[in-house]
Amino acid sequence: MNAQEAQNIKWSENIIIADGDYIDHVAFDIIVNFERMLDRRIPAADFSQWAVDVALDGRLKPGDHETQVVLLHDKKNLKLENFAPSDYEKELNGQAFRDGHLGEFIINSIATGDEHAEKDAVLLDLLKTLCNHEEVKRIMIVPNAEDASLLNSIRSTLRDVDDELKHITLFAMQPIEGGNFKQAILGYSIMHAMGINGIEASPSPSEGGDVYLAE
Questions:
Q1: Alpha-carbon torsion 38, 26, 97, 61, what sign?
Q2: Are 30 and 12 spatial neighbours (Cβ–Cβ below 8 Å)?
Q3: End-to-end C-alpha distance for the chain, whole angstroms
Q4: Positive or negative torsion for Cα 84, 90, 93, 95
Q5: What element of type H or E holds 151?
Q6: Which residues contact 53 (CB under 8 A, 6 or more apart)?
Q7: Which residues, including other chains, have CB under 8 Å from residue 188's CB and lie 6 or more apart?
Q8: DSSP 8-state assignment for residue 173
Q9: Are strands 96-99 and 103-112 parallel, antiparallel or unpaired?
Q10: Do residues 121 and 150 make contact, with C-beta atoms less than 8 angstroms apart?
Q11: For residue 104, pLDDT beyond 90
Q12: 92 in helix, strand or coil?
């Protein structure tokens, strides 16, 4: 799917918008870090489990829900290298799965990078669109949180959103200063989807719960 086709998507009550290239980068760093620390092979993250964990971290409660997962990626990147399934068009776009506790998850992938559809611009346009849709109640955003300019644009976009009507959670590897949204640590959902349990993760040198990645 391209950015123009995305305008025709019928939106659900719960939406996950994720920068696929960024979550793949974070997953790679986690694999390198924990393989070194645990001295064992770390598998690719189970994409379905990751999506469920993001929904839980976004405080979606058990029920027969419908949640859409929108993956944005540079068009030159045809697949996720550190998740399974991985191929955007063949294995992810247009697919769905059902979780026993949270209901159905519907996946769409959007290739970006055309002259008029840079990834960050598409993400911000989607975010504005979703904030104006009454049927959308919960938005979980996984942007490239290392891009300060993008974070500022997200803060600006969400500044006047009524948090009584929209429950918005932003995922990053470290706490983000300010913003009209709740926050969650991205690394936890990816680690869980890789089968890294809390006991294994505890040797991290963090005292504040942050996830330390490979340099």
A1: positive
A2: no
A3: 34
A4: negative
A5: helix 148-158
A6: 188, 189, 192, 193
A7: 53, 57, 211
A8: S
A9: antiparallel
A10: no
A11: yes
A12: helix
C-alpha pair distances (Å), 136 with each of 27, 93, 97, 149: 28, 21, 20, 26
Tell me the two tokens of residue 138: 């919960």
Residue 169 has which token pair?
A: 């959670």
Q: Which whole-number Å values give the CA distances from 199 to 35, 101, 163, 196, 213, in the listed order?
A: 15, 25, 35, 8, 17
> What is the distance between the alpha carbons of residues 174 and 157, in angstroms, rounded to a whole number?
21
CA distance 52 to 67: 9
Q: pLDDT tens across 145-185, in order?
A: 999 999 999 999 999 999 888 999 999 999 998 889 999 99
The two structure tokens encoding residue 175:
């706490």
Average pLDDT over residues 51-71: 97
Tokens of 85: 């399934």
